[in-house]
What we know:
- This protein is α+β, with helices and mostly antiparallel strands.
- Strands 4, 5, 6, 7, 12, 20 and 21 form a seven-stranded mixed beta sheet that branches. It has a five-stranded antiparallel beta sheet with strand order 14-13-27-26-23, sandwiched between helices.
- The chain is globular and about 145 Å long.
Amino acid sequence: MDKRQQKKRTINGENRRNRKTFGMWFFLVAAIIFILFTVRFSYIAIFKDVQNHNLKSQAAKLYTSSQVIQAKRGTVYDADGNPIATDTSKYTVYAIIDSSYRSASGKALYVTNKKTAKVLAKYLDLSEAQILKILSPSSKGIFQVQFGTAGSNLSVATMEKIKKANLPGINFTQIPAREYPEGNFASQLLGMTTLKTNTKTGTTQLVGDMGLEGYFNKQLTGTNGYRTVKQDVYGYQLADSSTKGRKVENGDNITTTLNNKVQHQMETLVSKVEKETQAEGITAIVMEAKTGKIVAATQRPNMKSETPSWTNALTQQTFEPGSTMKVLALAAAINSGNFDPNATYTSGTWSLGGGKITDWVTSGWGTITYKEGFYRSSNVGFAHVEQNMGAKTWMKYIRRFGLLKKVNVYGMGNETAGYTTFKGKLEQANTAYGQGITVNVMELMQAYTAIANNGKMVKPYWIEKVTDPNTGKTVKKLSTTVVGHPISASTAKQVRKYMEGVIYNKVGTGQSYKVSGYRIAGKTGTAQIAGTNGYETGTNDYIYSFAGFAPAKNPKYIIYLSMKKPKNLTKAAETYLSSISTPIIKYLLDQEKLKSEGQQGVVKVGNYVGKNAQTVQTSLAKKKLQVTVIGGNKKITAQSLTAGKEAIINSRLILKTSGEMTMPDVSGWSQADVAQLAQMMGLKLSLTGSGYASNQSISVGTPVKAGDSLKVAYTGK
């Protein structure tokens, strides 16, 4: 064997050994890898976990569909059951302008023609040219555009009208919203909501920020529900799976004590006075004397004003009340045995405690009795009254009447209580005629109930009940709460008698507040306004006010009005304020009279929506209701009183149908009824005079549309 063959054999043997060795190692490595994979897959199969990710839960998520069910925010109602705050939806319109956006069949899904701008201009506060400019941006590559505030907060009705035009590329985004169907109706009490997004869930919901909406936000919001189902890869629910989740719980409903007609009447009258006087602020409230139930309340400015106010003037603003405080000072002096109505003093000015007290007529009226001093609203007289009973006694009654501390009216938050330093003879005497002491409106109203209610002081309230719509149960029921007995019944009756003198005595300051057919009690007030450098000194830099009890002998209602710093007084301040109080008191007492005389009895109002207007009108006329139908069609779409309520015989019920509206004859109507009519027809109402309607600017039978202006003149009281 030659050397070459021997070498070749040696190399082949080595190769075989190398291949064998490599094969053994490869087999060993493959076996180890196989074992590792087997162990790993077994672990995954058994424990269903990969790098701390649970495969079972991940698979469940992949094949499980979850849906959040939004809770409906609770509805707020007036005393008659009319909704005054409800859930609704608002819409934002947007336009797709990218020409590549088409359906699977090739249909254009973008704006294609100028008709779009023409149609949108009818419903948005933009011109056709402005819309065309938005639809044709200078920048390229823009997929969609919006129309700013003009294209936001669109109502359902507006959205549907635009949709009906079938405009390619026009779409809408829906957002939850709050609607106040009665318009400018106790807006400060109801408050407002804002839309907020939950960063964890991505859902949006309304959140109450002010007023009732903020106070009861938790109860009104409710709890969202959710629903989960197992599905296949195509999104269909699996046959053997069941639906799971949590039931939605809608927010609680709230019923207030506000009288729909009186509230609308008050809003109209206050707006008129604000417009005429350009007052910096006005408050108005009427309350049942014996129960504390608030019938109507408003303020200017409010959240609907051009320059809105974000505070509730009834509880969050304090002020020096002026001479309406003399009612409480008189009650304290009588009850403590320190008032002699026939004793005399010198009016005009009086030096006390290093200062001077002055009557509104600085020269005074000579030597007069304390009784006359009350009629004339003499500051000097009540400084003497305070000194006669003593500061300690007077402060005791200030606290008995609940002043200087929060009333805590349920449903009115962030209250600011009144305050006084009450130091020194001069300031102590000043408080007896409402200077040097501050109050809020609800403190005064609560204190006045002791005078009107024969010594029994009750807490004001405006929430009737809170109900759970999910169960139908009443969660909370409000009623009269007695909070004290600061004076005797005898004292209360004497004070009311003196208050009658303010209205009916020839020297009384409240003669403008007389109400035809009824005798009332009242007290006027004119308070200086404290500033950083003392009291303001402008001609009309005062707070003018009136507190009235009606009727005087056995009060059923308390009314309080104030007007701050009017810029334009062409008549006495009392004339403007009485234009609010007189028709409201007249209407309320007329209603009480109808009840007591039983003209007799009441009629239960049914649900007339959808029924023939003429048939319903004929039927109700037989029951002695005055029925007015507005609208040109036969079927009723709305009614002024909700079903289930009771209407007093001879009172008015308004029925609305669709179609063209024509102006009815409102001769002899009360201001409350005219205000209700204007609200249902969407008219801008202006009232002059007091009593009952005698003249109207829109002739009977004239076609009208929402937004038209109606002026109604009244004569008599």
